[in-house]
Amino acid sequence: MKKGLLFAMVLMLVACGVENNINFSTTQGNCADGSTNASYCMAVTIQNNNGGQNYINSTNYPITNLSLNVSGASNVGYPSAQGSSYDPNNCLGSTINPGSSCTFYLWLTGESFGVGTHTPITVNANYTVNNTLPWVTSGNSATSSLTVYETPGLQISSTGSSPAYNGYVQTYNNNGFNTPFKAESESIANAVANDNYYGFLYLAGNSGIYFSGNSNYAGNATGGSSSIKGATNLIISGQTIYGNPNGSLSNSVYTASMQKESFSWTQYATGLTNPTTNISAITGTRLFFANANNAYVCTQNATGNNCSQEGVGINGGNITALGYTTLSASSGTVYTGIIAGNAGGLWAESGVIGSPVNSWVSVTTGNGAAIANVIKIVSDINNNLYIATATGNFYLFPANGNVGAQTSSLTSFPWTVQNPVAMVVDNNGGVIYIANSSGVIYSCPNSTTGAGSCTSIGQSAYTSGILGLNIITQLTSG
């Protein structure tokens, strides 16, 4: 009888020998470099039997040889793919004893899904269970998995024309509209830029450059800066931010690398004159700004930092929008790629960037119709330009398009949104989001023809004062 009981106990232990109580926990917003509240980041802790080793009710052993793989999306950075920078605690090379844990990091490398989606991402952990009982074969392999989600959101920012919404941001995602939260100081937010490295949304105000991210978080990226404080224009390209300060430094452009949350600014170029708030464009290392009816280009070159006027002023009024794309030469005329809009029309600059003798050519539709009252020009990832007018008409000017009454590539979309004030292209969702002056948000089809109609997705909290629309994905646990 005793032999039978002993044999049964051994069988029970052997059967439980490869069981390992591995648990995952996540912290949204934590990055491998120490940044916090960033939408693109997530800390993942793998814990080996949080109750410790107990041979009676939980046969548990040290684990080693941890490896990871991610499925469901190609834009997730993780240790096995990106290396030690996402594994500062060396989880992949460590022994995790019973009751111990180790934390590694996930970090989105960009946008991959459309607004309104909630895409599951599976993190698979493979490891070796180092059994220590003499009657159990050592070196058993095991697998555990964790599911997280990519949740893209449309960020709606307010200028604060109503005091209740001064500097506030509201998000629209798969759960609808969330409650607006304070993302800026008491000064009016006057520029918006979308970041594709940490997933922060930056807002430039009169007294600082603020950023918001995960869990309604807001911070001041210029609190420790001795130079740039507030700004009238922000441009982000990759992991570099450019700011055109307000006040005494408004004739210059400053730049900083995106390292954590606070920037160390250096002067990039100088020579601007009273640049217009929130009107800018970029290509490579060239930045474009507006002043009244003049366009400026700022760049770094062999002769130093330089901002210069682009040719002559444009007819038809002050510049209200700027864009950049590649343009095809037409009838012997070469174009710089700079597109500008004003009350009098849409214009393409002919000549060479930086030349004082450049001129502006009217961009019309294929049938020669002029475009008046341009208020917004936005670009997609392929440098196609989308143009909105104050009367609610919309146009597409494709990259490598032609300028000219007989050969113009500018096409008119068949849909209208009355009184548009902000617009953004959802490249992954295949739509264009537009906000009107009453705070209604529309989803409009994005195609070469614009076929179809716009659909209202709902009323934002802002019945006036919408400044901008941006798209940022959150890495979430549910």
TrEMBL record:
Keywords: Signal. PROSITE patterns: PROKAR_LIPOPROTEIN. Residues 1-20 form the signal peptide. This is Uncharacterized protein.
